[in-house]
Every structure is written in C-alpha cells, then in structure tokens.
C-alpha cells in the first residue's frame, strides 16, 4: 500500500481509515472505488464487529449497496471493506438533488424491508425502545438542562412514553437500519451506498423513513416530508409491504415513531457531549426539538408532553446551547 489516512469518524468507538493500494483491484461486481479500501478499527472492549458482518450480508442479499466485507479479524476488531467513496447525501442535498436522492433511498429501503424475516435481527422490543426513551430524561433533561424531575414531571413522561410505545409496538415489523439518514447514505452507483448499519433490528415499519425524512442534520419543511412520505408509501404498498391502505394512518404512525426517535436522539446527543466529549452533535438539537414539538402539538395524547417541553425550555442548558 502507498498511504493510509483517516476516512471518517462517528458517534461510537469505531475508527475508519482509507487505504490506497499500489494497484487497482476489483473488489466486487459493484462500482466501488478502484485502488482504495476501508479499514475499520473497532476495539473489542467497546465494539463487536460480528453484527456489522452479519447485517452487511443481509443488505447485500436484499440488493442494497453496502460495503463488501473483504477480510475479518473479530478477535482484534478489524475489518477490511470496499470503499464507497467520500460523497455523502449530506454533502449534496439541496432542492434540486433531493427528489432523485430520496427516490433512490426510498427504493433501497423498500428492497431492504422486503427481505425482512423474523429471528434474523434483534427484536426492537419494548425493552429496547423504552431504554432509548429513558435517555431523554437522564441525559438531556437532567444532565444538559440541569432539571431535577419532580414526581409530577415523571408522571407526565411516563404517560407519554406509554402512549408512544403502544403505537410503536403495534406497527408491523420489518428490518430496520436504525440510522438511515444523510450522513450514512453515500452518493455512488448503484445509489445509495449504505453505511453504519451494525445496530440494525427487526421493528416498526416507519422507523427508517422517519430517520430519512426527519433527519437530525437536514431541514425540510413539512410539505416536502409529506410529499416524499406519500411517494414512499405508494411504492411500499405496491411492493406488498405492510404499510396499510390509508396514508393518514401511516403518517400518524410515522409521526409517533418520530417522537420516539427524536426523544432518543436528544438524549444521545447530550450523552455524546457530556460522557464522550464529542461536541459536534449538541448544535443539531434545536432541529430535532423542532420536529418533536411540532408532532406533539398535533396529537391530544402528547399535549402534556409538549407543555412539559415548554416548561423545560425556560431552563438554560448547562453547556450554553440554546434549547
């Protein structure tokens, strides 16, 4: 090899390096970058490479463009992968490019969900969904805002969490990438390339679409979100996926799934800052909070949660970031 350099970082302990080879090689039938590979370093005390390898195989079998796994050392936490390049969706998304890019992402998501089989991925069950919700009071409210939750606060959160979970758990289940958004989708041929899938689960059918259209890193107005969601729902319904015959019901499930994800993301972004010293995420919280507040305002059952968010909004965050 002639050179090696950092390729990317993420919110975990994993590190990625781009390796330039002395000669171009063909690593798969797909159009990946010739002459470079990606080396993943995932320290075993903190990360387990096995799920990455297993989910990569499921994605490829479903006809989704994921990196080819070329070499594996699970004991030491190293993988050698094909290189999907450097252009993320986040780099190129704008009003002109979004329709085609989201169309491609929707088509790939349909293929991924059509491949779903129970028992192949961890179940996105109540324990896991609830554990994610609990990140919000622990890390965002208590740690970031410095709020000591009263029994009344906790009662409001508990009732809201119960309603959210009841909706999420009632949705049909499919394969769920769990972070299907603009930083993990690459602009390649065939498009998109899909990264960061090691936490995939078997869970609610709307989850990945929420990740895509209510992205923590990209702003789109509701008109765009609904337009793209309708197009995806039509495509998924025609393919035989369990999205129902009424878009209104699908959209309600999408919004309630979004509330779960937004509460989780707010907690994760605060934890990344206070526990892990990663300061690149808290600045995205106003966008995520905007999604959350807008959804809560539309549903009677979530109005008490919205009032609680209004109360919390009066508190100055510990780190000085605006709510």
Q: How many strands, what sense, and barrel or not for the largest sheet?
A: 5 strands, antiparallel
**What CATH architecture of the largest domain do you see?**
Alpha-Beta Complex
Number of helices: 11
Order of helices and strands: EEEHEEHHHHHEEEEHHHHH
**Number of individual domains:** 2
Strand order of the largest sheet: 1-2-3-5-4
Radius of gyration: 20 Å
Helix amount: 40-55%
Give the number of DSSP strands: 9
CATH class category name of the largest domain: Alpha Beta
How large is the share of residues in beta strands?
5-15%
N/C terminus separation: 47 Å
Shape: globular
Q: What structural class do you assign from the helix and strand content?
A: alpha+beta
- The CATH superfamily of the largest domain is Aminoglycoside phosphotransferase (APH), C-terminal lobe
């Amino acid at each position: 090899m002639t050179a090696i350099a950092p390729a990317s970082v993420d919110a975990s302990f994993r590190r990625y390096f781009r390796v330039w080879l002395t000669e171009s090689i063909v690593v798969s039938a797909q159009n990946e970058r010739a002459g470079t590979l990606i080396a993943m370093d995932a320290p075993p005390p903190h990360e387990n490479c096995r799920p990455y390898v297993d989910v990569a195989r499921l994605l490829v079998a479903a006809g989704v463009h994921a990196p080819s796994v070329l070499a594996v050392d699970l004991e030491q936490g190293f993988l050698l992968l094909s290189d999907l390049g450097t252009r993320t969706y986040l780099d190129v998304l704008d009003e002109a490019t979004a329709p085609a890019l989201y169309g491609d992402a929707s088509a790939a998501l349909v293929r991924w969900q059509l491949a779903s089989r129970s028992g192949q991925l961890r179940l996105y069950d109540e324990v896991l969904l609830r554990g994610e919700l609990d990140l919000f009071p622990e890390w965002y409210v208590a740690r970031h805002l410095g709020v000591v939750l009263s029994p009344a606060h906790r009662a409001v959160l508990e009732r809201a969490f119960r309603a959210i979970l009841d909706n999420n758990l009632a949705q049909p289940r499919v394969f769920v990438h769990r972070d299907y958004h603009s930083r993990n989708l690459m602009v390649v041929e065939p498009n998109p390339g899909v990264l960061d899938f090691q936490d995939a689960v078997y869970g609610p059918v709307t989850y990945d679409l929420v990740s895509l259209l209510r992205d923590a890193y990209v702003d789109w107005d509701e008109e765009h979100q609904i337009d793209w969601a309708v197009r995806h729902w039509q495509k998924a319904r025609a393919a035989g996926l369990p999205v129902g015959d009424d878009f209104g019901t699908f959209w309600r499930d999408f919004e309630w799934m979004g509330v779960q994800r937004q509460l989780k993301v707010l907690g994760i972004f605060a934890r990344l800052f206070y526990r892990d010293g990663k300061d690149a995420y808290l600045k995205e919280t106003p966008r995520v909070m905007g999604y959350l507040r807008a959804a809560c305002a539309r549903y009677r059952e979530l109005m008490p949660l919205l009032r609680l968010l209004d109360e919390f909004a009066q508190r100055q965050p510990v780190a000085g970031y605006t709510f």
